[in-house]
């Protein structure tokens, strides 16, 4: 006769929840964790497990509820507070993250991991100088702290301190966020490259590559024979790029070129000692002339004289896209302006918002273009109004006026203050006042469009 084990205890139910989660049985894991919490409402690990399940299922609000409950339990859980601060940052609520980070600091004042969280929260809250000082202190204690170095580099570069920022940015090699290197080639170290064959590797997204292509002529002027491994998606757009001796479109062909060194494209400003953006004009891009007939047909559909291109989201796979992206609905107040014709340049999954919106020619769709065709369309529009993405770099390089709608902690390319770009003469900034709130930004854009219309005699 077997012995009755008796009723399950809270820890038993938690272990069952944990095993269920490990088997990807999320609903069962939630049920067991609920049963655990019924017996022990202060079971921190059960709350944290439920939060992890909700995050996996993309239920951010439910995850926040679980994390706040875990963090409120006495005595305070360092793990729960860490995760709560991180989730607030993920949700675009830096002030909340900062309050939690300061609570952590009071609990463990000498923990460098907590100092890092505190510095990130301060940087996202606009307290850039305080954050930079913490990162510098962390780097003093651990010079190999790549995470702190990268964060510090963004802060320095975002405040136009290039001499400080470029060396810090090189720490990204220690964080594993650099392009795939060619194993048999040494890296160029900035020594005189006269007649040396240097392979330049692309790095980052398409916008990063377009932005950094301006530095290739500087490498060639220093005496190098520049071989550029160009991503296929950009090969048409960058055909007219200056500063390139040999185009390489297939990495398998590299051994035949006899390159002596390699370098990442985004390391060129450091190695070239860039400290004045005005000395490095945007790259020359190719606008597809074969696209003229399609472009003219789209332009002929305009119902208003001021042709405004819009784009509301960058690459959804980019980690910071939730902060920098808007929704199509945020841009629709611009369609209320009777003198404006909107053209959508949106690509990727966010384009579904336009398809499902049923807007007809209120927003004319220009979705199925490659980059060179997009460039040709941009060249024919009066203004581009958009959130941060590669298309902004294309418009900036072409010279079409581009109005970039920026979140409260934008990419350092666009700095943290000012309404004009250091890198693109025709780029103007409209900055958020509050995270993920585009209402005032779009209202200001509408007023600026009225000013353009008045200057052209449209109004």
Portion in helices: 40-55%
CATH class of the largest domain, named Alpha Beta
Largest sheet: 6 strands, parallel
Name the CATH superfamily classification of the largest domain.
Answer: Glycogen Phosphorylase B
Biggest sheet, spatial arrangement of strands: 7-6-5-8-9-10
The backbone outline, from C-alpha atoms, is globular
Global Rg: 26 Å
Number of domains: 3
Number of strands: 10
Oligomer: single chain
At CATH level 3, the topology of the largest domain is Rossmann fold
Q: Into which percentage range does the β-strand content fall?
A: 5-15%
Give unreliable regions as ranges: none
Separation of the first and last Cα atoms: 93 Å
**Order of secondary-structure elements:** HHHHHHHHHHEHHEEEHHEHHEHEHEHEEH
What's the mean pLDDT score?
A: 94
Short description:
With 459 residues, the protein is α/β, with parallel strands linked by helices.
Short descriptors:
Serine Threonine Protein Phosphatase 5, Tetratricopeptide repeat; TPR_rpt; Rossmann fold; six-stranded parallel β-sheet; lipoprotein; 459 residues; alpha/beta; TPR-like_helical_dom_sf; 3 domains
Commentary on this structure:
This protein has 459 residues and is of the alpha/beta class. The chain has 3 domains: 10-141, Alpha Horseshoe (Serine Threonine Protein Phosphatase 5, Tetratricopeptide repeat), CATH 1.25.40.10; 197-279, Rossmann fold (3-Layer(aba) Sandwich), CATH 3.40.50.2000; 289-455, Glycogen Phosphorylase B (Rossmann fold, 3-Layer(aba) Sandwich). Helices cover 44% and strands 10% of the residues. It has 20 helices and 10 strands. It has a 6-stranded parallel sheet with strand order 7-6-5-8-9-10, sandwiched between helices. The termini are far apart. It comes from Roseibium aggregatum. Keywords: Lipoprotein. It holds the Pfam family TPR_16. This is Putative PEP-CTERM system TPR-repeat lipoprotein.
